[in-house]
Amino acid sequence: MKTLKKTAVGAALALTTCLTALPAAAQELTFISWMTGEPGYGDWWNEIVAEFEETHPGATIKMSRVSRDEYADTMFTLFAGGNPPDIVHLAAFEFQPFANEGWLEPLDERFAQTDIPLADWAGQGTCEWEGQTVCLMLLYSGFIMAYNEKVLQDAGVEEVPTDYESFLEAARKVTRDVDGDGANDFIGTVMPTTGDASVMQEALGFVVDAGGSWTVDGKPAFDRPEVIQGLENWKRFFDEGISPMEVSSADARQFFLEGRQAMTIDGPWITGVINSAAPEVKQHLKIAPSPLTPPLGGTSNVLAMPSELSDEKKELVWDFIQLTASEKYQKRFSELGGSPAPRPGLDYSDVIAENPGFAIIQQATETAAAAGVDRLPKGLELENNEVVKIFFEQAQRMLVGGLDPAEAAKNLQEKVTRIAE
Amino acid sequence: MTDTSAPRKKVAGPARGFPMIDFSAPRHREKFGYLLLAPAVILMAAIIVYPILLSVDISMQDVRIARIGDAREPWTLKNYQWLFGSDEFWRGLWVSLKLVFVVGALSVIIGFATAMLVNQKFRGRTAIRLFVALPWAVPEVVATVIWAWMLDSSFGVVNWVLLKLGVISTPVLFFSNPTAAFAAVCFVMIWKGYPLMSIMLLAGLQSIPEEQYQAAAVDGAGPWQRFFYITVPNMLPVIGVTLVMTSLWVFRDFAIIYVLTQGGPIGSTTTLSILTFEQSFEFFRMGQGAAVGVITMILCAIVSRALVGRLAKSVH
Prior knowledge:
Distance between the termini of chain A: 82 Å
Number of strands of chain A: 15
Low-confidence stretches of chain B: 1-13
Low-confidence stretches of chain A: 17-24
Largest sheet of chain B: none
Mean pLDDT of chain B: 87
Oligomer: heterodimer
Order of helices and strands of chain B: HHHHHHHHHHHH
Largest interface: A-B, 26 and 26 residues
Radius of gyration of chain A: 25 Å
Number of helices of chain A: 18
């Protein structure tokens, strides 16, 4: 009887222990991303998730996808409703309002206890909000030029453009109506005119080339002569009928895929677009350094942790962030994503041996980073969406209404200064 | 015989310590009505009144992002000061009013014309009635996406047809030219909105007593006289209600404009509802967004009251 009692007590104790331990071990982390399922970056996430689950028995990551168009709204609703994902993935230009509300956990102390080389981490400065590090930068990239060698040669362009003037001249030569139906069959370059952020980004490439930037020391600098020059250089492509109107970034890439566009300046992801081209077009598609100097560059997306999370989950999410920042997965990022990872000191020789174009992307990234170029206007991060909207409106006035760039720059300066105050 | 002198047995007496109300008593009869209405009133308060009060509350706080349960900011009129001093609000109001006028007027005309057409007796009337109502049945976003494709300047069928017919020499930039964009939004809204007008006006037409037309015919009234002196006066209350419905729909419609133009170009299609969304969910200025919403609600209430009151009275 005594033995039976002991056994029963022991069994009950063991069962209680197991049941208490079960919730701790069987943790499910939620992770929402617009990259889920994408070839390249999506594969990279899958590999990290697989290793995390393998090294954290009982912990699982539930990945789900929200499209980029509705991403900010969805995340905003989730956070505002008190139900954020456990692993927070945001674009570099949209995390600021979340950080401003105190929804993102400061990570300085955690980073300080690791050997992650944050000081030289590309674009990591953007992750600082009010003196605290609230995220890990996942990508900083420089822009390159992809071109169709055959289309250029057919138009009599022998040398690949290396500066603004040669780029404009080549675009002029290529743009022509071959069959006389009134529509250009070949286009020098196609720049987006829809999608406010894309338009502002495209114009910034020319502004940076002219020596300008949207802000100086965190203050709006839209009315500086270099900015006006850059806007004029950008507008010229539309004034001369080279770049068509009402085109999105996706449309522009489609023109390139169809072999109708000679040159396009884009991020490293353009290599993925090239790979998806039909063989008869793909054989003529190549990449070169951007003719705009320094090239446009920018931070892309960040990884963060919500502040309203249990300590237990915070530890797991931190492990996930560390795994993402590890040398192994940063190297893997460059292999799968086709662009340099933000972690400094990685050896890309084997990647370059396999993909010679990688060296051009790496060079562009380093040049853009050295010049401090970023798509996000420094000092206006919190008002970025408003700034983008204001810029887009002035851009439309320039392109459709014929507004002089100097006048547009003056309007921009006034309006942006007003909201920044 | 029944002994009526015996005391009556109480059917339902008051429970001990729990007073009951006899709703059959004349002085309590009204209370029973209120009691029956209570669940509906409470439900309405929860789903209609509470969000309105919440919007008013947020509109009077200087907040970027409002969260229920968070510490609230003190009340201020800062958002309303911004509102009445901003170009965006006045432009949004002007665009909304223009849209209400154009879409409302054309929807009434087209809706009335189609209602009168399908009110006639002719072969294939059922099929025509179905075609008239068809745009109303298509989900708004689906219909708008289809129109966005059709109106595209590079690949759209509308520009292609106009070019082939020689009506235009270069494609119309439906989403870049402010006038064309406004016209495109009006067109899609009318296309989507006129069937409801038509259906409601058809119901109104069918309720006009036939004797009035017969008497007018005996008196020698022609078709136009019958239309202006019998049809229109009888239809005014229905037109009033449909106009109110259309005005409110146009005022608050978001999907058609957002899918087609996102409020652009150059703010030419930014209505108050688009401005509300923009301020709240794009610029994260929920206080300002709520202020736009509150003013929109007040404007809608005034417009509804004015239209319903004036048109309903005018019939008599």
